[in-house]
What we know:
Layout: H1 2-15, H2 23-46, E1 51-52, E2 55-56, E3 61-64, E4 92-95, H3 100-134, H4 139-174, H5 187-216
Antiparallel strand pairs: 1-2, 3-4
Helix pairs in contact: 2-3, 3-4, 4-5
Amino acid sequence: MEGVAKKVANRRAGKVRNPLEPLASFNWMVLSLIVLGFGVSVVATLFGSGSILGWGHGVFICVDSGESGGDTSATSWLHPHAGVNIGSADFRLCTDKPSTSQRWWYTLENLPGTVTVIAAVLITFLALRLAERQGLYTPGFATRLRVLGWFLIVDSVLTPTAKVFAAHRLWASMADGPMSFSWNVTWPYLGAGLALLSLARIMRVGSDMREDLEGVV
């Protein structure tokens, strides 16, 4: 009887799906692509056929104003219907021979977004690996969820601030005349961060309940 019970238990355990999937597989794939892409970019830059965030050979740097307006004469082929006006999405300035300062401002404009993606994927990877070893309802997993949540919340404010400041300086280095850049909180990151903080609290409560049950048993 005991042998039959063990077989039934093992069969049921084998049918239980991994609760971390498909996120774990997707996270591993994204992390692998990031590492591979970064490695290829570094090698290409060192051999003179690529660039990284404005540094390297054959760099083409652009900055967008984010404001509507501009010349629409190039759209003479387009015939809008009655009551429809044509307007450009924004102004764009580009240079294929950037100065050192322009490279720095371009890097500062684009680096925060890159760091956000890499850090979020890496923290998620570490959290999932910990969950695989210790389980979901553990203090360590809750802590890493909380770290990721606070990171996204802070990043939702800091990244657009850095981008607007760097874009303003880059624009000033390419053209004379004032140009305003819109600043907006990254609402998806803010919402995801708040959701992760709530989820971390749920995991912490579940961890405390499990510890209490283990103490009772």
